[in-house]
Write a structure and sequence with these properties.
single chain; 124 residues; mainly alpha; rod-shaped
Amino acid sequence: MEEKIRKKAIQRYISGEKPKTIYTDLKRSKKWFFKWLKRYQTGQDDWHKDQSRAPLKSSNEIGTEEKQRIISIRNRLESEPFAQFGVSAIKWELRKLDLDFPSDRTINRVLKREGLVKKNFVCS
């Protein structure tokens, strides 16, 4: 329905009608009309369709290389006898390699997604 209104508005504009008359008749804003006019002028066939507003990339997402580095350090530390292998130990290893490291929460999130977080069992 909304797509038909957009097409109709632009068709009326092409026919020579003034923008103010069009968007007033359709009970739309000036901003709405010129948004769709601009989209029409791009020449794309699907100019009248809604576009996703979702960001292309999450700004807090870490890269694959960084994830792999965290996982490999965790696995190496876990295989060493008596070694600690939590977030602090992983950050220490990254610091020794002179690499930047993400927040504790991000490291925990990576470990959890990979199934590397183990629950502590307390014997009584």
